[in-house]
Amino acid sequence: MNKIRTTAEWQRLDADRHLHPFTDFGDYQRNPGRIIDRAEHIYIYDTDGNQMLDAMSGLWCCSFGYSQPTIAASVSEQFKQLPYYNNFFQCSNTPAVELADRLVNLTPKQFTHVFFTNSGSEANDTNIRLIRRYWDTKKQPKKRIILARTSAYHGSTIASASLGGFEFVHNQFETLPYVQHIADPNWYVSGGNLSEEEFGLQAARELEKRIDQLGEENVAAFIAEPIQGAGGVIVPPDSYWPEVRRILKERDILFVSDEVICGFGRTGKLFGCETYGMEPDLLTFAKAVTNGFQPLGGVMVSEKVAEVITGDGGEFGHGFTYSGHPIACAAALATMDVLENGNFVQRVADDIGPYLQQQWTALGNHPIVGHVRGAGMLGSIELVRDKESRERLEPEQKSGGICREFCVANGLIMRAVGDSMIISPPFVSTHEEIDLLIARATKSLDQTAEHYSV
After folding, report:
1. Which domains does the chain have, with CATH numbers?
2. Is the whole-model pTM more than 0.85?
3. pLDDT digits (tens, 9 = 90+) for 327-358
4. What helix, strand, coil percent values describe the chain, rounded to 5?
């Protein structure tokens, strides 16, 4: 049980002892954050009792909100039966075996195996290991280079952050030398005078140009999110993915679909690759697989890759103490029950997703909104001073942080990525709650406009 402390006491203890992810530690010492104390449905509450509508589903993961007693009950029962055992040394456990089979049956038909991890970061590290193992076993050791995109997020370990495309992150460590990046397909930021269709083709062909420059014999894989989440909910033009598919099909290069954000229904299909007609060789999952209730990630492995690495290549020297943890797998099995029994993928496709997009798109009429993006239960708006010139509200992309603070004060959790405000609401949101989200977002935009005298 938590000790009884005042909010100020919690904040001081937090600032003195706790180093937070992606945080300016010096600034946090001066300005401690909110302490979240409890949650229910789609709302979180801080230690002062303030209620906030969580339009980010935790961190893209609590797709079914915070009140899912069947998941909690499944975890509780697993604690009683088998709280832990490893999957090394010719052993397994029943929840891990059952979940592996469940995921193979849920995912696109090419996937026949799964490798469990604890997070999306570890899953993308695993992808690098699997890719290397695959090409080495096929006696093609020159195929080493992995291509990724700018503004991509693939995790925070040395390896997965190397795959990611954020310069400020790369400036803080030495990235892997065999990872290279091409431009992301953000039409509003980079499209210039091109139409969205023209820009989508141009962005896709950057992949083709880079492969040809490097030599197909040297390129091992291309990794990409169907929609780039943490990069600002970058929804590619309709022309982008069909052209990428053509390029990859003409070349002997593996494709990794990072579905940590898009997976398990968020785009209106079970996986984002299905939304865009892609057929990946490897698929990264995490977050929503347990509704955020337990840490779990993994890689779905296609038969094409599996038949090579399960052949006569010997031991695969990779794994984690908690790979296939029985409690995490039990949480995932219960989450898959919620997903399927509640018909949530169809609800995102036919009901709550279209309603959100209709209401979200209307924010484009606001004076400081220059561009609106969205799909399924994902959305992004770009903040500008001038819609025609796309001039930003202030230099160095600080306006999102200003807007975010107004959102929090208005009881709304909406994330800032530079000058973009992004959302990823739970699938259990009602139409009335989407209306409330939009009302609070609009009030926050009004206050941001007033702050910048627009």
Report:
1. 34-67+351-451 (3.90.1150.10), 70-341 (3.40.640.10)
2. yes
3. 999 999 999 999 999 999 999 999 999 999 99
4. 45, 15, 40
